[in-house]
Write a structure and sequence with these properties.
D-amino Acid Aminotransferase, Chain A, domain 1; 4-stranded parallel β-sheet; ATP-binding; DcsG_Biosynth_Enzyme; alpha+beta; Dna Ligase, domain 1; 5-stranded antiparallel β-sheet; about 25% helix; about 290 residues
Length: about 290
């Protein structure tokens, strides 16, 4: 008979054991003597209230039910990352908080429901402040005012606050660089292809991912973002079980934060070195020890 899981890895009903990137985490944790299992976050039969630790992982349906999801987070006694972090991080308006602390963030204007769009005089992106991947995001050229206004209206009709951001064309050439931190320390990095690519661009496409060794400028920007997030919530960095910092570059090569993922990011284990999953398992074990 298998021992009762000490750790539950929270997933969603559509992918109850997550995806191939981290499906085997229970086996990796078992190697360290930590019984673990997957369970969809909204499964009423799952013993989330009695688990020693509940790890937010692939809860990828939360944008459709964010209120319910956050209520569930707050009901879980031992959740990582913590519920207050999930509440903050599942609405991209958090970018304003990071920018206020000096983190170099992609310039972002917030347009609340009912507010008009001031169309920029440069290529730009509209995206909902609550959403996963590129769902609801669209890219517009300077002359596409009517199309942008229609997209804004559709997002507002769904009660979304909308982010307006200049499109960073360097993404078409080199993609986004995602730096992953585990237990407060840097673990690995990978490149993701542009989600809204220029079809004529020679860079990686939306489904492309590959491991990379980030340069010092990207490492510094990522460290600054994780430090700022921890400080906002009165946490030590080690109290953030994981963080994924998605960076892009300006045309001059300097890094900008696109997103800081602290709730349910894919951690790119398939693109990482073989030690990445054991590092994650060690961080989970350390969190159990308190």
């Amino acid at each position: 008979m298998r021992p009762a899981p000490r750790v539950l890895l929270a997933s969603c009903a559509e992918l109850p054991c997550s995806n191939a990137d981290d499906t085997d985490l229970p086996e990796v944790l078992a190697e360290l003597g930590v019984p673990a299992a997957w369970a969809p976050w909204d499964d009423p039969a799952a013993p989330f209230d009695s688990a020693e630790l509940v790890v937010l992982r692939s809860t990828w349906d939360y944008p459709l039910r964010r209120k319910d999801f956050l209520a569930w987070c707050e009901s879980v006694p031992a959740l990582v990352n913590p519920a207050r972090v999930a509440r903050w991080n599942t609405d991209k308006t958090y970018l304003a908080d990071l920018a206020a602390r000096g983190v170099p963030v992609v310039p972002t204007e917030l347009v609340a429901p009912g507010e008009p769009l001031r169309c920029p005089d440069f290529e730009f992106v509209l995206k909902p402040s609550v959403g996963a991947s590129s769902r609801g995001a669209a890219r517009f050229a300077v002359g596409e005012r009517d199309a942008a206004a229609a997209h804004l209206a559709a997002l507002h009709a769904a009660d979304h606050t909308v982010l307006v951001q200049p499109y960073q064309r360097a993404v078409d050439r080199e993609g986004e660089t995602a730096l992953v931190f585990v237990g407060g320390g840097y673990s690995h990095a990978f490149v993701k292809g542009a989600m809204l690519p220029d079809p004529a661009a020679p860079g990686p496409g939306p489904g492309d991912r590959f491991g990379v060794e980030p340069d010092a400028a990207l490492r510094r920007a990522a460290e600054d973002a994780v430090d700022a997030a921890a400080a906002i919530h009165g946490l030590r960095r080690s109290e953030l079980l994981y963080a994924r910092v998605d960076l892009v570059r300006r045309e001059d090569g300097s890094p900008l934060l696109l997103e800081l993922e602290l709730t349910e990011p894919s951690l790119g284990f398939r693109q990482a070195d073989p030690g990445a999953k054991p590092r994650f398992a060690s961080a989970v074990r350390a969190a159990l020890a308190g």
